[in-house]
Design a protein that fits this description.
By secondary structure, the chain is α+β, with helices and mostly antiparallel strands. It is built from 5 helices and 8 strands.
Length: about 240
């Protein structure tokens, strides 16, 4: 049989040999291929799909309720409901969420959906005033309320305080959709709009705000970083300690 190596130029043969050697590790075993990037581990925030929406307490801030303290889950009374929880230490990402989710909520109001926008803050008085200032500036169509459980939020909801947006859709007291993120992509609000449409069994379409720079809010802890998606998993959230 003809030796094919004799047809290869010396320089090419050396190059072939170098490639062959480079494909092996120094310990003699084949080199392992590594993926370009590791998948992002899912992060949980709020009750997951199929779980019950446990009761918790908030204080009304801009809705002129009397008494001010109320339970949004009891208030919803099984009707289609949207719960939006966010840090009261505001930034542009959260402001955009308030604006977009507010418009979506207003569009779904005619179909009987109730919406609750709940701030999470360390110091109640400062957080209350911050929410009032933001609502005066943005003028969202949904009233602001403040969790009585501080920045951690209601313990029985398992809120991840690192998420700027935690959104839960529920019907008949059970979660049908959960979304949480540090920095939502613009397309995520389209998804939320579609999910709200499924909740009320009616297509809704509002012109969503996309440029972050128009919100006029200061940054908080690297808010300008690229979007980080946080996936939802049904009824399998690890127990909170």
């Amino acid at each position: 049989m003809k030796n094919h190596l004799i047809d290869i130029a010396p320089s090419a043969a050396c190059f072939l040999l170098i490639l062959t050697i480079g494909a092996a590790r120094q310990d003699g075993r084949p080199a392992e291929s590594k993926p370009a990037s590791a998948p992002v581990a899912p992060v949980f925030s709020g009750p997951q799909i199929g779980e019950k929406t446990a009761s918790f307490k908030v204080n009304d801030v801009t809705g002129k309720r009397e008494p001010k303290e109320f339970d949004p889950v009891a208030d919803a009374a099984g009707a289609p409901a949207l719960y939006f929880l966010f840090p009261s230490d505001m930034n542009r990402i959260i402001a955009k969420g308030i604006t977009n989710i507010g418009m979506i909520s207003e569009a779904a109001k005619e179909a009987g959906m109730k919406a609750y926008f709940i701030g999470l803050g360390v110091e109640p008085i400062a957080a209350d005033q911050r929410l009032r200032n933001v609502w005066l500036s943005l003028k969202p169509p949904v009233a602001a309320s403040l969790s009585v459980d501080g920045v951690e939020g209601p313990g029985n909801w398992g809120i991840n305080k690192n998420c700027y947006v935690t959104l839960v859709l529920a019907k008949d007291g059970k979660v049908v959709y959960n979304y949480a993120a540090l920095s939502p992509a613009d397309s995520d609000y389209e998804t939320i709009q579609n999910e709200v449409g499924k909740l009320i069994n009616k297509k809704i379409s509002v012109k969503l705000v996309t440029p972050e720079g128009r919100m006029g809010m200061g940054s908080r802890g690297g808010a300008a970083s690229r979007p980080v998606r946080v996936e939802s998993r049904p009824a399998s959230r690890p127990a909170e300690k």
